[in-house]
């Protein structure tokens, strides 16, 4: 039912998801560089702000000022929301103890304090990089994700693809922990005339969803997903 859905704010994509994400679920946006992972997460943030929701945006890559500039370049006036209903936090992934503690221990508390209903971690793959072994990474990520499921918020995680597999996240883990997985990638026609962007909803628990691959465009002020079109 649409009443139980949380819209990302990208009409064609929300249509592919059956009206949006399941409320209080975890969604991963996976793609290589230049496919718009941060742009998709910012659309998710702006949609929530328009609905008067409280939102936390954790950035492990871009500075707070850059994130706000990206939103302003889209024509969104975010200043009235900053530190009132929008909380942007920049973490340094090279400082293991600080980043690890703030994400694992402080984020759940902050979600409760500000009553956040949407949370973004961009990119989660830099947090995954903090762990030195696959077994430690699996254990810590499972505990972290399961802890967030009790916080009454819808979560969006972004991840780079694996360097040898464009269909997998960097560590091949987050897609198994997420309820919804959206894959962004390049499509190169056989004649090499142009490079196009395409997405697919690889997985969505508890919901029917489109399994078709659809083209999309990253425009200055919006993301256009052509849910009625076919990929070339």
From TrEMBL:
Keyword set, alphabetical order: ATP-binding, Nucleotide-binding
Domain KaiC: 4-232
A single MF term (Gene Ontology): ATP binding
Matching PANTHER family: UPF0273 PROTEIN TM_0370
Protein name, as recorded: KaiC domain protein, AF_0351 family
Gene3D superfamilies membership: P-loop containing nucleotide triphosphate hydrolases
Signal peptide: none
């Amino acid at each position: 039912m649409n009443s139980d859905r949380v819209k990302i704010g990208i009409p064609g994509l929300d249509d592919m998801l059956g009206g949006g994400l399941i409320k209080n679920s975890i969604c991963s946006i996976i793609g290589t560089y230049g496919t718009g992972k941060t742009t998709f997460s910012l659309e998710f943030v702006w949609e929530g702000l328009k609905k008067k929701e409280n939102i936390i945006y954790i950035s492990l890559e871009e500075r707070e000022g850059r994130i706000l500039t990206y939103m302003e370049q889209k024509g969104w006036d975010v200043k009235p929301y900053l530190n009132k209903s929008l909380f942007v936090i920049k973490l340094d992934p090279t400082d293991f103890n600080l980043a690890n503690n703030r994400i694992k221990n402080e984020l759940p508390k902050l979600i409760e304090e500000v009553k956040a209903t949407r949370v973004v971690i961009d990119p989660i793959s830099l947090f995954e990089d903090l762990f030195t072994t696959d077994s430690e990474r699996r254990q810590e990520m499972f505990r972290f994700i399961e802890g967030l499921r009790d916080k009454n918020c819808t979560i969006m995680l972004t991840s780079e693809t694996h360097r040898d597999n464009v269909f997998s996240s960097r560590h091949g883990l987050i897609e198994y922990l997420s309820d919804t997985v959206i894959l962004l990638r390049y499509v190169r026609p056989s004649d090499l005339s142009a490079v196009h962007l395409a997405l697919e909803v690889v997985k969505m628990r508890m919901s029917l969803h489109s399994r078709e691959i659809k083209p999309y465009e990253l425009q200055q002020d919006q993301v256009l997903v052509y849910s009625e079109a076919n990929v070339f």
